[in-house]
Amino acid sequence: MATRSRPARSFPPLRGLLPLVVLLVIWQAVGSERSPYFPTPSSWVGGLSTLAANGTLWRAAEATLLTFSMALVVATVLGALLGLLVGASKRADRALGPTLEFARALPPAAIVPIAVLLIGYDQRMKVTVVTFATIWPILLNARAGVRSLNPVLLDTAKSLHLSWMDSTRKCTMPALVPAILLGVRVAAPVALVITLLVEIITRVGGLGALIALSQRNYLSAQVYGLILVAGLFSFMVNGLVAALEASVLRRRMSR
Amino acid sequence: MTRSSMVTSRRRKALRRANVPGLLTMLVLLGLWEILVRFGVTEFQFLPAPSAIARGAERLLRSGDLQGNLLHTLRVTTLGWLAAGLLGISLGLLLGLSNTAWRYSMASIEVMRAIPPVSLVPIALLVFGFSVRMELTIIVFVSAWPVLVNAIAGVRSVRAELVDVSRMLRLSRLAQIRKVILPGAMPSIVVGLRLAMSLSLVLAVVAEMIGNPSGLGHAVIRAQQALQPEDMFAYVLTIGMLGVALNTLLRFVSARVLPSLATGPGDAR
Amino acid sequence: MVAPVASDHAPACGCRNVSVDLDSTEGPRRVLAGVDLDVDDAEFVAVMGRSGSGKTTLLRVLGGLLLPTEDSTVTFHGEPISGPPDGAVFVFQDYAASLLPWRTVERNVMLGLEGKVSKPERHSRVAEALAMVGLAERATDYPWRLSGGMQQRVQLARALAMRPSVFLMDEPFGALDAMTKSSLQDELQRVQERTHATVVFVTHDVDEAVYLSDRIVILEGDPATVTQRIQVDLPRPRDQLATKEMSEFLRIRRRVYDAIVHGDE
Questions:
Q1: Fold category of A57-250 in CATH
Q2: Domain-by-domain residue ranges, chain A?
Q3: What pTM was computed for the model?
Q4: How far apart are alpha carbons C219 and C203 in whole angstroms?
Q5: Which residue of A has its CA nearest to B130?
Q6: ipTM of the complex
Q7: Could you tell me which CATH number the domain at B62-257 has?
Q8: pLDDT in tens, A220-251
Q9: pLDDT at C1
Q10: Side-chain half-sphere of A125: how many Cα atoms within 13 Å?
Q11: Per residue in C222-247, pLDDT tens?
């Protein structure tokens, strides 16, 4: 079954933000800046600005973004190709099915130590783990896309005597773009979360490493601030991917 | 059709259902792995052969380490999941039933949901230190959200007509909730519970990796740092199998409780 | 014996003793059995029959998109084929699925020519084909901006640009309204007149079949075979009003109706 797309829900009424706002206000009023566990919201900004000033924040954000995008690109290419393979060939689907299902069931967090031991504490390891975790929605959607290709399209290519290369390049792949984009839309948030996960566990660069480091040094204000940044990141990533999807699909508005 | 052809076709159908090519592929891949490592072809210094992993697993089983760690993770996961479920369902019912409450809280819930759960583990570490309490807290806090959101959606999705019917039958509010709204919201709630289960396991493992020094997650890290790849792989496989087992169990139970929800193994998380 | 190519005796396309088995939930099902059909050069043959009678299957066999069982032969200009032959082009009923939504009209028409003819030749053929179907001004539009009838004309133009000797058309006008249908029928007639192409046309519309064709072939039964071949000797060029008032038209029409509704006479 394909990963279903989350319907583009409109955001619920803004007055729903009230509890959060109230919580923050109370926290700010009652809390203390120096509390080791629950520093006031205002201190978060202070903590962040220190990091921003000495460049650490930007370097970390850059590292996270780099890992995230590299992994997403590789996952898209690999996922699309694999999905195309198992979608087009029932035999390949049956043969590879159990292996793929098993791989998919492994929690990414458990993959991290394996990757560390085999590859080491570096960027390659990060990208490998994130790619491994992110490939599944793309693969599943590509597979579903191939299965639901209109047979008339393939017949058209055959009757026009297009070579297999041309037929795949000009007809099949462009027809799969909506499905793959959907997979990417689901995969992007996963990629970000796993990137942060790997960074928190292994502390190899990026926002996650920064969070873990701040926690180790009991700089709680910074931890909270960084989590906010992480949340902002995820919000932006979702928005960007949705915009990308919309712009590519606008040109082919069918019916 | 002749008798013999009928028999062979029945056997062929049974074979088809067992997915022989799939199993064969796995075995072939495992065999390839074994050979590659035995002949030292791979460049990975710490890649153990499947046979070594099997031996490592056997060793861990005999010493009881595997079971001990497995039980810990299992206990924490299920406990956390149950708590998250109860919390999510009760709160979800409340917010789903009252339109005002919904309007004044949904946006906050959406914002909280956007925070990547994994980034909350360091905060839990800060507050609770290296303890089981930390593990449980993070599991409950994070896993409650899918249950909450799905419960709310489920309650609100119970079709207006059904609510009107219950009103026409003059059911008391409690009876209405029990007989119409709760069952109507069940499919959505079950989905939320399943999501929560996988989240619970993942967070338990992560928490054990960087926080609470017990359980499967911690065992994996310890094996990795001690450069014992066979043990590490064995534990990773255990985690994977635990996940599959929990998922299958949930699916089985939910199919029994709600026959209309029976779904296949190819489900997206 | 296989007739030499380009001989006057070889039919444009034909099949002998064609049987086709298709997969179904209960196993292979024989859809066509022992079908013989020859279509001569520049002939317009309509294939008719009830829904599910195998008309589309037969068309796909003639076009090399489907392989029949071993003891059948399918020929194209006398030569046996095992895949879509050069010189035959399909026009599908589902035009929306057959046109590429991410390509403009003119790029769609060009699809079959890419890599086969030079660039200037391609452009001139596309322009010619679009002019023939009256869509020259819409060349740079995307298919979704065009009406159903226009989209089908684009498919037609794409087929025309290939300059085929045989058109294989699967209920091409079935999804269109009456007005568009009649104007496209006349356009098809004009095209055939100009190019002397052979047309094999599947339809379930009796009026359309009698109006357009030189011969009507009726498929019937399960598995299907050719049960009747009806000659249509009406004068050309045909006119939507004048031809349809002729008594000969009505007589043939009645014959075809009886053949389809009542089976073998």
A1: MetI-like fold (1.10.3720)
A2: 57-250
A3: 0.77
A4: 11
A5: A216
A6: 0.79
A7: 1.10.3720.10
A8: 888 888 988 888 888 888 888 888 888 887 76
A9: 39
A10: 22
A11: 888 888 899 999 988 899 999 999 99
